[in-house]
Every structure is written in C-alpha cells, then in structure tokens.
Amino acid sequence: MKWAPDNSIELPSTSHISIVDKYGNALSMTTTIENGFGSRLMTDSGFLLNNELTDFSFKSFKNGKKIANNIEPGKRPRSSMAPTIILKDNKPVYILGSPGGSNIIGYVVNAIISMIDWKKNAQEAASVAHGINKFGTYYLEKNTILSKLLPSLEDMKYKVKLRNFSSGLNIIHINNILYGGSDHRREGIAIGD
Predict the structure, then answer these.
(1) I want to staple 99 with a disulfide (CB 3.0 to 4.6 A). Which of 2, 14, 150, 173 is the partner?
(2) How many whole angstroms separate alpha carbon 155 and alpha carbon 148?
(3) Residue 70: helix, strand or coil by DSSP?
(4) C-alpha triplet 168, 169, 170: angle, nearest 5°
(5) In degrees rounded to 5, what are phi and psi of residue 161?
(6) What's the pLDDT score for residue 44?
(7) At 115, phi and psi to the nearest 5?
(8) 99 with 14: CB under 8 angstroms?
(9) CA distance 124 to 191
(10) pLDDT, tens digit, for every residue of 167-192?
C-alpha cells in the first residue's frame, strides 16, 4: 500500500536535562507532555497530563491515500527520545540528550560521533552543525558549513533540503572533572559547582 505523507504537528514542547551529582550519580532525562502544559489538565496530585495525541496526524486521508500515522484504535503515539549515558569501565563518561521531535536521535548520534570519533569537547559537540537523513531526504542545517554540501549531494542524486534545526543538546563529559556543553540554538546552560 502507498501511504500519504504524515502531517502530524511537531511542537517545541520537549525538554532534556543531563545531571551528575557530587556522588557521581548520573541522570539523562528527556521529557515531553506535548504543547505548552500538555493537555492543560492537572490531576488532583498536581501533575499535568500530556497531550501525545498531537503525535498523530489529524487527517486520515490525503489525495485519496491513507495516512499511516492517523488516529485509530489500538495505536500508540510515536515519540522519538534518546536520553543517553555512555559508560566506560561501568562508570558514566558521557551523559547527553536533546529535545527536538523526530530529529532527537540524529542530534544525539551526531554529538556522540563528534565526541568519540572526532575528539570534540562537550560544547563543540553540542554546537556541531546538523545533517540528518530521514526517509530518503537529506536535511542540512542552513547557514552552516554543511549547507555547502548541497550541490555535491544533489550531483550524487540525493534529495537535499536546507533547514533550521533547534536541537537543544545538553551534554556532560566526565574526564576526572566535569565538562559541560549546552546547545546555543535553544535555551539552556551548562552549570556546576
């Protein structure tokens, strides 16, 4: 069956924190309730209910073709998250993650490659230009060094689009002391005592 393109809403509503405490405990946590304040309903115990239904397409068909991600009984909303802790000798070395919808996995992988393979520090890895291939289209970050690859990739018959990214990576690298990095594209900061 040929499916129509998805048209679910991608709202900037996810947060990520990376934490290491004075005892060496590490936390990588990505959280989303969709939309600002989720469903805008609060329980009696004081927490907000999410609104993950925005992960679905609100139309069932487009141009006579069924949309794969439409709302139907028995389906669960998709959500891309990749809170990550990388260990060496059973101790945390890299603690990272990001908001960013369906791009989150690409952001985290780009940062890991930047730190481990390219030896970039946490801040450099959080700031690296993004190139992400999703479903055959190669998305390159506008106004970065990667955007210069567009003609070469198109010559190789890739479908390429330039776009802005807002990853929001938060990274901690432990190497005797803590090094932090926070993506400049979104709110966030690396701090410590």
Answers:
(1) 14
(2) 13
(3) strand
(4) 115
(5) -135, 140
(6) 87
(7) -80, -45
(8) yes
(9) 16
(10) 899 999 999 999 999 998 887 788 87
Q: SS3 for 150?
A: helix
Of the candidates 129, 115, 130, the residue with the CA atom closest to the CA atom of residue 171 = 115
Contacts of 137 (CB under 8 A, 6+ apart): 159, 160, 161
Asked if 158 contacts 175 with a C-beta cutoff of 8 angstroms, the reply is: no
pTM: 0.80
Q: Which of 133, 131, 127 is nearest to 98 (CA)?
A: 127
* Residue of 14, 30, 32, 84 marked active site: 14
H-type alpha helices, 49-182: 104-116, 122-127, 150-155
Asked if residues 95 and 115 have their Cβ atoms less than 8 Å apart, the reply is no
| Residue 32 appears among annotated catalytic residues | no
First to last CA, the chain: 56
* Cβ contact 192:113 at 8 Å: no
Cα–Cα separations (whole angstroms), residue 65 to 57, 61, 68: 13, 5, 9
Cα distances from 185 to residues 91, 127, 192, in angstroms, run: 30, 8, 21
Q: What angle do CA 118, 109, 76 make, to 5 degrees?
A: 180
